[in-house]
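ok trying this again, last paste got cut off
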Amino acid sequence: MKIQTKVFLPGDIVRALDEASRRLRKPKSEIVRAAIASYLSPDGAEAGEAAVTRRLDRMSRQIERLERDVTISSEAIALYVKTWMKAVPQVAPDYELAAAALGRERYARFVEALGRRLALGKRLHDEVPVERSRADSP
């Protein structure tokens, strides 16, 4: 048995309902009935919760990957600076201008090499082995 009910809706909702009715080729009452049933259904809340949980899980994995990449980058820079500090001697004041010019030239070559590497799609994090948990290891 169907009972007629009068509902007042804002104009934008009515326009969206009209558009959905035309697009889906279904009566507006059928669309409204399905929407209300979905809204009042206890499964609707659980489905929404499940969708949010899946999205949060995916975002957590993405953040973990970003954290790993930042850690790799930080450690690579720290290792490079530590090695550089050990290997490069102090420059005598007489040779500072020549050393600065050589440094600019080497830096330009470094940036060029970095650009080529990035253009090829190579990434440091791809070269570093992924840590496996103890449960995964044989």
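PB: full thing came through this time. The first helix runs from residue 11 to 24.
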